[in-house]
């Protein structure tokens, strides 16, 4: 008898879809196979596709509040003329409600874990605790050349880790989140890396997102962002970099040699006209590539199924090869690779892995006819097909309804916050 039994589902196991049953004990998968099983809670998955939970590996969660606020702008103008200005108005309670809205959207579209880099992170952690989702959280730090600011930022980031790491039965992993090489000095980044080593934790940072960034960093320090970070000893297997668009071949080899993970955020990159990352080349080098949405102000959703399809399509176009990234490879980026990037044993339907699992209704018009469930999932999903979501062994979404959150209350609250920012 298992705590939870998922019965007769079409399950993604070892890279293939097979009919199987899944037994969960506590927060772990305890059985995957064809034997008949029973559970205290039984889920009939006869008409379901069952996959590991999706991992959104780069977000700024509370930016749901700014969804649609700053449109049709390149990244530099988007940040300097719009976003950084209104972010100064954000209060902790705003971040709490914006985070709940982001979590609501992610759970309803099959995301079981996410990595967030933002401000007022105590409020994000509270939202994670209440919702039941899994998260890697980091306070977004930037010293901008000020020693006083560097000391304060590092203090806030360190205290956040000490207060929240391993909270809620280990569902929160707290790490460091320096913003980028153009907002953080090399001296500050060295201090952050030393602190991460001391606390045995990870670092998440934006790198080479725009051509402007690369040219700016090179003009100031005489090196591109990746070369600069490598020179100061910042890059290793516990470094996760977001975007990595403007890289040359040698920089890719550096990332491979240092075992750095890369988060690809295709839709945000397209919307801000930042560029298209060479994901096939990164993948072919053996670099661990995972997927993220970025913030809801530059995307504008937290629906990872959109990123899955876009990742595959973009690489087909820029390489001129329809088989550049195959469906199986992209699905792995959205699941197992995200968990791996942050050292979490999840993202696979396998005994001993975390019970973060998503069930998808395969009786949908967009999946009909279904020749291959893998191709239907990657190329024909909207996200609304998700029916059940289990995180850490707990059922959070049932028949499309989030059991842990009050959807109407959250939406009404965030809608009411809009007035403050409209007037700014």
UniProtKB/TrEMBL annotation:
Keyword Metal-binding part of the UniProt annotation: yes
Binding site for substrate: 87, 179, 209, 294
Enzyme Commission (EC) number: 3.5.4.28, 3.5.4.31
Enzyme category, top tier: hydrolase
Pfam family, one: Amidohydro_1
Gene Ontology MF annotations: 5'-methylthioadenosine deaminase activity; metal ion binding; S-adenosylhomocysteine deaminase activity
InterPro entries xrefs: Amidohydro-rel (IPR006680), Deaminase_MtaD/DadD (IPR023512), Metal-dep_hydrolase_composite (IPR011059), Metal_Hydrolase (IPR032466), MTA/SAH_deaminase (IPR050287)
Family: Belongs to the metallo-dependent hydrolases superfamily. MTA/SAH deaminase family.
HAMAP family according to UniProt: MTA_SAH_deamin (MF_01281)
Name the record gives this protein: 5-methylthioadenosine/S-adenosylhomocysteine deaminase
Lineage of the organism: Archaea, Methanobacteriati, Methanobacteriota, Archaeoglobi, Archaeoglobales
Gene name linked to the record: mtaD
């Amino acid at each position: 008898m298992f705590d939870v039994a998922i019965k007769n589902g079409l399950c993604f196991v070892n890279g293939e879809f097979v009919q199987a049953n899944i037994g969960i004990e506590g927060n772990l998968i305890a059985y995957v196979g064809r034997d008949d099983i029973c559970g205290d809670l039984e889920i009939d998955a006869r008409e379901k596709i069952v996959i590991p939970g999706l991992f959104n590996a780069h977000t700024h969660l509370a930016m749901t509040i700014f969804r649609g606020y700053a449109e049709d702008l390149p990244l530099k103008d988007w940040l300097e003329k719009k976003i950084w200005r209104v972010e100064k108005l954000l209060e902790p309670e705003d971040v709490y409600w914006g985070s709940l809205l982001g979590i609501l959207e992610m759970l309803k579209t099959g995301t079981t874990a996410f990595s967030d880099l933002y401000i007022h992170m105590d409020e994000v952690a509270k939202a994670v605790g209440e919702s039941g989702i899994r998260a890697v959280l980091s306070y977004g730090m930037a010293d901008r050349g000020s020693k006083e600011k560097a000391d304060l930022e590092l203090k806030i980031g360190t205290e956040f880790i000490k207060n929240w790491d391993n909270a809620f039965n280990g569902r929160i992993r707290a790490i460091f989140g320096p913003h980028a090489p153009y907002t953080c000095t090399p001296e500050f980044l060295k201090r952050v890396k030393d602190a991460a080593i001391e606390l045995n934790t990870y670092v998440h940072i934006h790198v080479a997102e725009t051509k402007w960034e690369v040219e700016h960093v090179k003009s100031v320090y005489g090196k591109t962002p990746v070369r600069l970070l490598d020179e100061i000893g910042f890059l290793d297997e516990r470094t996760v970099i977001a975007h990595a668009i403007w890289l040359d071949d040698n920089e890719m080899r550096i990332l491979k040699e240092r075992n750095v993970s890369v988060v690809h955020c295709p839709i945000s990159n397209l919307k801000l006209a930042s560029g298209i990352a060479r994901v096939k080349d990164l993948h072919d080098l053996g670099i661990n590539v995972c997927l993220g949405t970025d913030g809801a102000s530059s995307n504008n959703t937290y629906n990872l199924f959109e990123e899955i399809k876009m990742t595959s399509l973009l690489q087909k176009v820029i390489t001129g090869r329809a088989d550049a990234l195959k469906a199986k490879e992209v699905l792995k980026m959205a699941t197992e690779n995200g968990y791996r990037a942050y050292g979490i044993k999840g993202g696979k339907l396998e005994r001993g892995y975390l019970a973060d699992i998503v069930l998808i209704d395969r009786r949908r018009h967009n999946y009909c006819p279904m020749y291959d469930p893998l191709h239907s999932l990657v190329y024909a999903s909207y996200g609304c097909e998700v029916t059940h979501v289990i995180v850490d062994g707990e059922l959070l979404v049932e028949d499309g309804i989030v059991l842990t959150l009050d959807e109407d209350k959250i939406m009404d609250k965030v809608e009411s916050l809009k007035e403050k920012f409209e007037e700014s």
